[in-house]
Amino acid sequence: MIITEVDKVSAQKKAKPEKPAKEAGESKVRLATIFHPTEDILKRLEREVKKGDVKYYTPYTFANQLNVKISVAKKILKEAEKRGILKPYSGGRRAPIYVPVSSNP
């Protein structure tokens, strides 16, 4: 049987490169990042609310404004509710809607 150039190339493509073996003490460790809303972010939210430009806030709209993850935006909005900046208007666990305390629905 004669091995042609095509067979050699296809054999090279099929061969997987060997990965270096991990050392005994080396392992992957994932650290959970716990986010606590900072005073800076809450003050920024309070300024936005006082301007009165936005009638309502959802985690999605707020995440887009601050360029953060939606889960982080949910935590910030809950903290703002605890501090009396916003109040819940509608919604449940998945997509709550918050309105400024001074506005009436």
Characterization of this structure:
The protein is mainly α and 105 residues long. It has a domain at 53-100: Orthogonal Bundle (Arc Repressor Mutant, subunit A), CATH 1.10.10. 42% of the residues lie in helices and 9% in strands. The protein is built from 4 helices and 2 strands. The chain has helices at 5-14, 39-51, 59-66, 70-82; strands at 86-90, 97-100. It has a two-stranded antiparallel sheet.
Kindly list the characteristics that best describe this protein.
105 residues; Arc Repressor Mutant, subunit A; 2 strands; 42% helix
Short synopsis of the structure:
This protein has four helices and two strands; from the N terminus they run H-H-H-H-E-E. It is mainly α and 105 residues long. It has a domain of 48 residues: Arc Repressor Mutant, subunit A (Orthogonal Bundle), CATH 1.10.10.10.
What is the CATH class of the domain at 53-100? Mainly Alpha
Order of helix and strand elements from N to C terminus: HHHHEE
Q: Let me know the largest β-sheet.
A: 2 strands, antiparallel
**Percent range for helical residues?**
40-55%
Topology:
Elements: H1 5-14, H2 39-51, H3 59-66, H4 70-82, E1 86-90, E2 97-100
Antiparallel strand pairs: 1-2
Helix pairs in contact: 3-4
